[in-house]
């Protein structure tokens, strides 16, 4: 009798960090895609760069912190921390060189053909220099602070993500050389507009302008050399939550510390002087493996400035989201409350307008004299938030307004603290969630008195209450007057604001108590259905799939014969297509004009299918350390819409990436799934 060899961890799971780098490589492929408009390719270069910044600030920083603590824990795929960091460094260097080559050898020449140029000082036309010298004198020189390094001047603090010039100057009398650092200011445009001939858009990198005028910063000294460099620091915030301490104050204290986090990445140009590099590594307490030699410009995230040019012929055609047909009557909006009394509304952003659905729901509630209370969670929102303004209006009108503001939302902490204070000043009841958990769910509850009867209206979604990102993030949401959902949200808000220990709900699964167990139960049920010859199937759409328990359950379902279709935008630690383990699992990723962000789960249920939408990705943090909500979608029209979305995304000819059993993502298909959804929304909307 033969026995099957147990699979090693590396054969069973893919590394989450390397999988994330694979996702960012898919973003880079869009920057390399010659079929896209030129400035859209520039946009994807900028997205790739900013994605990589955050990856190093959080994920790589976390690995380095654990290494410094002497932890020896291995990743689920069996790699040590040292092995992971080495593989990350190798893969990142490959991608950074690809990005630089794409910009230097392809996109920059194409930009020049389109009369958009980024020049160096020595390449400027002669008549541009006087104006730029005047600009430097008036706008740049006053904000520069050259910092010398000598026995009387210690090595200066280098802030995270700042662009700097390492300058070597020499005293002509003594011949002694000294190091100095000049920070490139981040409150001046990175690309300085050069007076363009023939209406061309010509730019000079700010660091080039500063370098050309270094003698003015070091009068009497000889400028021997100058080299741009950029440092990335650990930017994660860890708050020790204590019931006896004000969480708001604790978070503010930690934010002030974040800027002093240890350095985790040093970016330099290929021409960097080895001695200066050695000094930087020593003073920043970094290793040679932390250095990335970049051909050409550093910090291509600054290319957003180029993308912002008014050149519509070089961009995607503008898309105006449609109003959901049930939320419009000709030129005038309907009452959202009247519409929801007739049945649920599933909205799909950005194809259907956030402003005329979710935002209008909150704004109508704030203005309606029959509304008694509004309760809402806020994880991230925009700078000038109409949602927050509506909540403030509601409170000032005398309504009870309760807002759970998650002030631990990474990189939005300061903005959320500001929103929390504005809401409190207006008379809203502001709560910061539960100790030890982030409140990540996207929920709103409106309580309305109608003819002496209390009725509850709800919104549960997959995306944040952010009108800006709702135009570029793909998300789903249900607006409903279903009494069961209203009762569930009432219980949930009582848990978030009080001491309720509610863990079971009617139409919801809520993490950290029931989402993991609920999903595992349904996956195992599909396996039993397949084994018994009954209809079985699993479809899941999330941003990330990392949790080993969920992955193992999906492997068991595949082995039992369940067809599993996974639509994963970002990280996927599951290895599909492995004989005897996952041959019935397909994994796809769609990366395009809009950021695929919705979370949807579907279980065939032996002919009685279940559809769920919500805020939870399949990661440890979402299932164990956050308040997340999944809503069972019972409305037949909404179920049919979700089915159509999945059918379209998984069609054989759709343009996407598929993950192979060899852990390689391969681009396939030609049909633009997102473009078809845009066309359908425009056809069926108002």
Describe the structure using short key phrases:
686 residues, alpha/beta, polyphosphate kinase like, Endonuclease, Chain A, 3 domains, ten-stranded mixed beta sheet, eight-stranded mixed beta sheet, 20 helices, 29 strands, 36% helix
Give a description of the structure:
With 686 residues, this protein is of the alpha/beta class. It folds into 3 domains: 9-314, 2-Layer Sandwich (polyphosphate kinase like); 325-501, 2-Layer Sandwich (Endonuclease, Chain A), CATH 3.30.870; 510-684, Endonuclease, Chain A. 36% of the residues lie in helices and 22% in strands. The protein is built from 20 helices and 29 strands. The strands form 5 sheets. Strands 16, 20, 21, 22, 23, 25, 26, 27, 28 and 29 form a 10-stranded mixed β-sheet that branches. α9 (274-284) links the parallel β8 and β9 (291-294). α2 (16-31) runs parallel beside α4. The longest helix is centred in the N-terminal third of the chain and has 33 residues, at 81-113. The radius of gyration is 27 Å and the shape is globular.
């Amino acid at each position: 009798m033969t026995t099957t060899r147990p699979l090693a961890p590396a054969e069973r799971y893919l590394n989450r960090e390397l999988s994330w780098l694979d996702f960012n490589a898919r973003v880079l492929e869009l920057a390399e895609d010659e079929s896209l408009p030129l400035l859209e390719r520039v946009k994807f270069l900028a997205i790739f760069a900013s994605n990589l910044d955050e990856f190093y600030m959080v994920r790589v920083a976390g690995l380095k912190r654990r290494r410094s603590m002497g932890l020896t824990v291995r990743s689920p795929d069996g790699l040590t921390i040292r092995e992971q960091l080495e593989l990350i460094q190798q893969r990142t260097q490959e991608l950074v060189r690809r990005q630089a080559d794409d910009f230097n050898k392809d996109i920059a020449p194409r930009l020049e053909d389109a009369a958009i140029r980024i020049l160096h000082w020595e390449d400027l036309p002669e008549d541009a220099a006087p104006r730029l010298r005047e600009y430097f004198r008036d706008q740049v020189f006053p904000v520069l602070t050259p910092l010398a390094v000598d026995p009387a001047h210690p090595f200066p603090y280098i802030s995270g993500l700042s662009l700097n010039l390492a300058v070597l100057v020499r005293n002509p009398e003594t011949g002694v050389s000294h190091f100095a650092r000049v920070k490139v200011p981040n409150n001046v445009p990175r690309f300085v507009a050069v007076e363009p001939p023939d209406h061309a858009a010509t730019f000079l990198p700010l660091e080039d302008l500063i370098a050309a005028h270094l003698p003015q910063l070091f009068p009497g000294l000889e400028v021997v050399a100058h080299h741009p460099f950029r440092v990335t620091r650990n930017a994660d915030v860890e708050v020790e939550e204590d019931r006896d301490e004000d969480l708001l104050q604790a978070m503010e204290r930690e934010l002030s510390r974040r800027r002093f986090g240890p350095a985790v990445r040093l970016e330099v140009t290929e021409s960097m002087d080895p001695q200066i590099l050695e000094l930087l590594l020593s003073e920043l307490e970094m290793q040679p493996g932390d250095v990335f030699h970049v051909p050409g410009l550093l910090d291509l995230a600054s290319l957003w400035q180029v993308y912002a040019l008014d050149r519509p012929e070089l961009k995607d055609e503008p898309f105006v989201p449609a109003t959901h047909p049930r939320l419009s009557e000709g030129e005038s909006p309907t009452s959202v409350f009247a519409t929801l009394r007739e049945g649920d509304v599933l909205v799909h952003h950005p194809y259907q307008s956030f402003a005329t659905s979710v935002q209008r729901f909150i704004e109508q509630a704030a203005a309606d004299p029959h509304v008694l209370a509004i309760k809402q969670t806020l994880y991230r929102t925009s700078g000038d938030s109409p949602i927050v303004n509506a909540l403030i209006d509601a409170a000032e009108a005398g309504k009870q307004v309760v807002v759970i503001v998650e002030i631990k939302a990474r990189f939005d902490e300061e903005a959320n603290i500001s929103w929390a204070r504005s809401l409190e000043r207006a008379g809203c009841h502001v709560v910061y969630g539960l100790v030890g958990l982030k409140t990540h769910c996207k929920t709103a509850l409106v309580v309305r008195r109608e003819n002496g009867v209390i009725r509850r209206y709800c919104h549960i979604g997959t995306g944040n209450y952010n009108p800006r990102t709702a135009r570029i993030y793909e998300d789903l949401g249900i607006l409903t007057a279903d009494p069961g959902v209203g009762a569930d949200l009432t219980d949930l808000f009582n848990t978030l604001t009080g001491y309720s220990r509610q863990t079971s709900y009617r139409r919801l699964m809520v993490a950290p108590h029931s989402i993991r167990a609920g999903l595992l139960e349904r996956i195992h049920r599909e396996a039993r259905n397949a084994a018994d010859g009954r209809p079985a199937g699993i479809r899941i759409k999330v941003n990330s799939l990392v949790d080993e328990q969920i992955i193992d359950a999906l492997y068991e379902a595949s082995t039992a014969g369940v067809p599993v279709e996974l639509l994963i935008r970002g990280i996927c630690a599951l290895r599909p297509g492995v004989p005897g383990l996952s041959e019935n699992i397909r994994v796809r990723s769609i990366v395009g004009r809009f950021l695929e962000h919705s979370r949807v789960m579907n279980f065939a249920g032996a002919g009685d299918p279940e559809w769920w939408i919500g805020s939870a990705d399949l990661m440890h943090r979402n299932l164990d350390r956050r308040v997340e909500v999944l809503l069972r979608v019972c409305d037949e029209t909404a179920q049919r819409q979700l089915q159509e979305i999945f059918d379209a995304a998984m069609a054989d000819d759709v343009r996407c990436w598929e993950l192979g059993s060899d852990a390689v993502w391969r681009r396939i298909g030609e049909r633009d799934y997102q473009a078809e959804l845009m066309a359908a929304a425009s056809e069926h909307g108002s």
